[in-house]
Amino acid sequence: METRIPMVPTPDDAALWHQGALYLADQRGLPQRAEFLRLDSAGAVAEAIRAMVVRGAPAIGVAAAYGVALAGRDAYAAAGPAWKAMVESDLERLAASRPTAVNLFWAIRRMRGLIAELDARDPFPALIEEALAIHAEDRAANRRLGDLGAELIEGPTDIITHCNAGAIATGGYGTALGVIRSAFAAGKVRRVYADETRPWMQGARLTAWELMQDGIPVTLQADGAAASLMAGGSVGWVVVGSDRIAANGDVANKIGTYGLAVLARHHGIRFMVAAPTSTVDMAMSTGAEIPIEERDPDELLGCADRRLAPDGCAARNPVFDVTPASLVDAIVTERGVVMSPTVEKMRALMGEAGSQDP
Ligand code: MRU
Questions:
Q1: What is the pLDDT of residues 291-316, one digit of tens each?
Q2: Parallel, antiparallel or unpaired: strands 235-240 and 270-274
Q3: Residue 265, class by beta-carbon neighbours within 10 Å (0-12 exposed, 13-18 middle, 19+ buried)?
Q4: How many other C-beta atoms can be found within 10 angstroms of the C-beta atom of residue 331?
Q5: 304 C-alpha vs ligand 1 centroid, how far in Å?
Q6: Whose CA, among 10, 41, 45, 112, lies 20 to 30 Å from 271?
Q7: Whose CA is nearest to atom 5 of ligand 1?
């Protein structure tokens, strides 16, 4: 049964492991409705990812890691020493929850690697320790890449961001918003313009909320308003996160990101992608191979539960797009910065074998 706990989350504490369960701030209701959901099975975590209770690539990966720990606990309770045979179906369910954010598959692969090393004894202590480590490492990676990204920004300047790549979308601190937080602390940010991000409104609901909690000046704008703002000359950088970065530096991110990159290049504005290396997928040679999630057209045909489009109207709802590497000025990770990405530079970042394992 679903347990909801009215509790005001802060952006940096939107996922908590507490007394044997995962507590996730339900991002669908924020900022108006602040509630945590208590999840105590892998199936519940998979459903929370599918239903967008938790969203944002690194946060999805962190939640999935806790989900694998819960799967191990349940499998051992049901089957004792034969637990490994039971855990696989839960791992598959987690992997099927959303297709684009590679952090999901990265986290499951890392947990699977640990499972392979374990014996027939209770796996839960080792699995939960690994999930907590994934969570803590993501938070630390974001702090590091936030500082590295901020170093690139000469301020004070205005910045445009798209969707929500903040603390709540990650293990903590945020990727794009991590860069913005660090740059603001260094006196380099005049104002952030947050695209509202149709149809889920992550910018309006989450980015505006996070930045306001941090005291960073933020102005919300319609997604279509970026071009005229750029033409005004106050914007120095577009800073976004990513769901998956291909081996050649092509970047999948929230639908509309590609358009922003084209506009930025036209106006001589620089374009930064901030993401941990768990978002880099060296198995995808280009962005054309990245699976792009298509969601229910109904999300687009109305707004806030109100139907807007005429009955019978067709709609397409791809929720990510791919920005070619040629439009990206900088990919900023915790391992370092790649300027004007190419496959050679991405290989150098990720190591000889192109490994994305930490
Ligand atoms: O559909 P969402 O809300 O999960 O999409 C999220 C994004 O596109 C983010 O920009 C991306 O995951 C980076 S989050 C640090």
A1: 999 999 999 999 888 999 999 999 99
A2: parallel
A3: middle
A4: 28
A5: 20
A6: 10
A7: 56
